Amino acid sequence: ALVDRLQEILFSEQFLNIQYDDYANYTASEVFSERRANCLSLVNLYIGMARHFGLDVQYQTIQIRPVWNRRGEIMVLSEHINALGQLSPTNRYIVDFTPDVRLQQQTAREISDQQATALFFNNIAVDHLVAGDIEQAQQQLRYALAVDPDLAIAWNNMGSVLGRLGQSEFAEYS
Q1: Are 17 and 37 in contact (CB under 8 A)?
Q2: Which of 17, 97, 2, 117 is nearest to 49 (CA)?
């Protein structure tokens, strides 16, 4: 009942009515005020709410067919994340913007809060990269890699940033 109520608060027109927006790389409080989110931002808000009420819930990434979007001169890879909750050893649930939840479970992988934080910093870095703010993109990627040094997508993005800064040897290394 609590899980249903939290989802009603997030998605119902009587409450937050949060809408999907691929560009909405927001903190949980920004999602709450803006009423829009990408999948990671929505999951951040949901997990914060659910844990506040004592629910056992984790982040999980979903392996989907790669989706590339052009943002300015940059091609951006979109990945997917949702929330996996456990009410009992045999009773699990998912909170997600995407309707094909059953199909996704075959490719789902739980990740830590630390890894989700690194993904968030990576997303913010991409926003800065697209906007042409290379120094701020580099700073956000440094945060991402400090939190999760094994985050391959952040290393790839760092290579793009370093290349744009004329540091081709370091770009190739990353």
Answers
A1: no
A2: 2
For the stretch 98-103, contacts whose Cβ atoms lie closer than 8 Å and that sit 24 or more positions apart, written own/partner, are 98/39
Contact present, 126 and 76 (Cβ < 8 Å): yes
In one-letter notation, the amino acid at residue 37 is A
Q: How far is CA 75 from the centre of its chain?
A: 17
> How many CA atoms are closer than 13 Å to the CA of 109, on its beta-carbon side?
9
Task: Decide: pTM greater than 0.70.
Answer: yes
DSSP 50-112: HHHTT-EEEEEEEEEEEEEEEETTEEEEEEEEEEEEEEETTEEEEE-S-S-HHHHGGGEEEE-
5-9, 17-21, 60-64: which has the minimum mean pLDDT? 60-64
Q: For residue 165, name the pLDDT band (cuts at 50, 70, 90).
A: confident
Over residues 50-92, the pLDDT tens digits come to: 999 999 999 999 877 666 677 777 767 778 899 999 999 999 9
